[in-house]
Amino acid sequence: MVITAIADGISRSVETMTDYASAPFSDPVIRLGVTGLSRAGKTVFITSLVANLMDRGRMPQLLAAKNGAIRTAYLQPQPDDTIPRFEYEDHLAALTSPEPRWPEGTRRISELRLSLRVQPTGLLSGWQGPRTVHLDIVDYPGEWLLDLGLMDKDFASWSDETLTRIANRKEAAGYLAMASATDGAADLDEATAKRLSSAYADYLNVARAKGWSDCTPGRFLLPGDLEGSPVLTFAPLAKPEETGRRSLWREFERRYESYKRNVVRPFFRDHFSRIDRQIVLVDVLGAIHAGPRAVEDLRHSLADILSAFQPGRNSFLSRIFQGRRVEKILFAATKADHLHHTQHPELTAITEALLRDARDRAAFAGAKTEAMSIASLRTTVEDRVEHGGRTLDVVRGRLKSTGKQAAFYPGELPSDPGHLLAPAREGAERWLDADYEIMDFAPARLTLEPGDGPPHIRLDRAAQFLFGDRL
Q1: Residue 110's closest CA among 144, 64, 158?
Q2: Cβ-based burial of 401 (10 A; exposed 0-12, middle 13-18, buried ≥19)
Q3: Is there a domain that residue 287 lies in?
Q4: Percent share of the chain, pLDDT over 70
Q5: What average pLDDT is seen over the chain?
Q6: Which of 23, 35, 64, 318: disulfide with 69, CB 3.0–4.6 Å?
Q7: Burial of 464: CB neighbours in 10 Å, binned 0-12, 13-18, 19+
Q8: Record's InterPro entries (predicted)?
Q9: Do 294 and 161 lie in a common domain?
Q10: Average pLDDT, stretch 95-104?
Q11: Do residue 98 and residue 162 come from a single domain?
Q12: Which of 458, 470, 468 is nearest to 331 (CA)?
């Protein structure tokens, strides 16, 4: 394994030196990583971002769009022929059809190259012609990113942490009963191994649907071609006193290490470690609705995600000897359109507080970070209604379940984020003084004017932060 790590480092260094040597003679490339946990809206974010960069009428806070520096934008084949192309056209068609629907979520890594023809501005702009800047967007499941935290844990540590964390979750009761009745010191029985791994995978799927974030190993949720293979046939077990060479526990330990070596490490080496800028999409409202424990779980998961990054400035020496570092990281609370705009500052403040540990870690290493509330595709309009003698700021949208229009008031978010984070840290089972609701809205029917992309909230600000400086 040491030799493999050294070989990986040497190949990465050679690749990086080649990038720098050829940089002055080639078009600049920005590699933007897009991730987030399930249902955070990665697919919609990429689709809306690309559509709004091609038709920039709704992008006034992206300076290169506002001042006309971006002359044109067009799609090209991505440079890596081994990665599936992000199905932009299909996803856009789903969102803009006469009966719009949400596209399928991210289930694998994919890539898309958007090329921007940019006219330089400033004192020397009259002497320079337009240049091309390539934006390579890499989409990958957030569950895979959480797996990077496994690289520093052995099977015993991961099992102990996992079993402790899920001990009081009703969703895990079935698996925990099966695991406690299993003798890890007994000889390996493949049927038993499959029952345990299947039961644990079932728990992970239910936990994800219930709003829990710490669902590792991520490939148990998105197995793809690995489904049924030994590398996905293990589960957390309490370590017995004796672990013989042929024991179930020892075989699970071997498969766990194989998972790290054959699944997690190649993802880091081939894809994740090459990213320049990163956006992490977070369904903060969904976690708040799920309750204090889900909020605390999300806080821990996001801190773990940051530990996988190598944040810092892309200096020449750091890229040769340490690999490419992420220069900017944006934490975006999605579904801001589910709130009236008067509550957006509270949502952003909660996001900043929720991500404090993760952001401080990245900022300390030199990366520039920011948090904001966005809606990649606006599905609602704002309104005011009288209810119980009060005037409520609400949003109206089309319900996914019935297709009918409905007004929605989710509850008033606290101005002090500590009112949510304190009970979350203390392990409270529910909020004491309020309930926070969520609504499942369908995409709104769109009528777009020429030159306008889909409606959004602060997508242009997100783009300016992530790559506006490179345009």
Answers
A1: 144
A2: exposed
A3: yes
A4: 87
A5: 86
A6: 64
A7: buried
A8: YcjX-like
A9: no
A10: 91
A11: no
A12: 458
| pLDDT tens string 449-464 | 999 999 999 999 999 9
Q: Give Cα separations from 145 to 25, 216, 275, 326 (angstroms).
A: 33, 10, 13, 14
The type of residue at 117 is R
Domain of residue 239, residue span: 151-267
Is residue 391 situated within a structural domain?
no
CB-CB contact of 245 with 239 (8 Å): no
User: Could you read off the pLDDT of 121-143 as tens digits, one per residue?
Assistant: 766 566 677 899 999 999 988 77
How many Å apart are CA 359 and CA 354, to the nearest integer? 9
Domain boundary pick from 267, 302, 333: 267
pTM of the model: 0.87
Tens of pLDDT, residue by residue over 220-235, are 988 878 889 999 999 9
In a domain, 126, yes or no: yes
| Closest listed residue to residue 31, CA positions, set 138, 146, 162, 163 | 138
Q: End of a domain among 267, 295, 330?
A: 267
Question: Same structural domain for residues 55 and 95?
Answer: yes
Cβ atoms of 176 and 163 within 8 Å: the answer is yes
Which DSSP string do the residues of 405-449 spell out, in sequence order?
Answer: EEEE---PPPSSTHHHHHHHHTT-SS-SS-------BPPPP--PP
Residues 6+ positions from 289 with CB-CB distance below 8 Å: 211, 436, 437, 438
Q: Which of 71, 107, 110 is nearest to 87 (CA)?
A: 110
pLDDT category at 364 given cuts 50, 70, 90 is low
Q: Which residues contact 376 (CB under 8 A, 6 or more apart)?
A: 41, 44, 45, 47, 48, 49, 334, 456, 459
